[in-house]
Write a structure and sequence with these properties.
The chain has eight helices and no strands. 70% of the residues lie in helices and 0% in strands. It starts with a helix and ends with a helix. It has helices at 2-21, 25-32, 36-43, 51-61, 65-68, 85-93, 96-114, 117-127.
C-alpha cells in the first residue's frame, strides 16, 4: 500500500531527526504536548500527525518540513519563479521606496489590464 510506505518514510525521517537531536520519544512528546505512544505511532508509520503537530515537531527538532517529507512528495519544487533571476536580484537591491514604486506600478498595470478598452480611453481623456 502506497500510503503506508509514505507514512513509514515520514515516520523514519522524524525518527532520524529526533535521534540526531539526541532526544527520546518521551522528550519530543512532552515538548509537543502529545503522548510518547503517539510519537511512536508516527515514527512507525501507524498514525498521522496534524499539520500543527508536524510544524511543532519540525521546530523542536530544528528541521524543515522538506526534511520530514523527503522522498514522499513526487516532483516537488520549493520555489516558483515568478520573475527571471536577473530581474529578481535587481529588485532585491532596490531601496524600499523604489520597491514600493515597482509594486504600485505592477498593481496599476494589472488594474489597467482588467478594465475594458472604453473605460481605459475615458480614463486617459479624464487625466489628460
Amino acid at each position: 500500500m502506497k500510503d503506508a510506505i509514505t507514512l513509514k518514510n515520514i515516520g523514519q525521517n522524524i525518527q532520524k531527526a529526533r535521534i540526531k537531536k539526541g532526544m527520546t520519544q518521551e522528550q519530543l512528546a512532552e515538548i509537543c504536548g502529545v503522548s510518547s505512544n503517539h510519537i511512536s505511532m508516527l515514527e512507525t508509520g501507524k498514525s498521522t500527525g496534524s499539520i500543527p503537530l508536524i510544524i511543532d515537531i519540525c521546530n523542536n527538532l530544528d528541521v524543515s518540513p522538506n526534511y520530514i517529507f523527503e522522498n514522499t512528495i513526487k516532483n516537488f519544487d520549493d520555489k516558483i519563479d515568478v520573475f527571471p533571476n536577473d530581474i529578481l536580484i535587481t529588485y532585491l537591491k532596490l531601496k524600499e521606496e523604489n520597491k514600493t514604486f515597482v509594486s504600485q506600478t505592477i498593481n496599476h498595470l494589472y488594474y489597467m489590464q482588467k478594465i475594458d478598452k472604453l473605460n481605459y480611453i475615458i480614463l486617459i481623456l479624464f487625466y489628460v
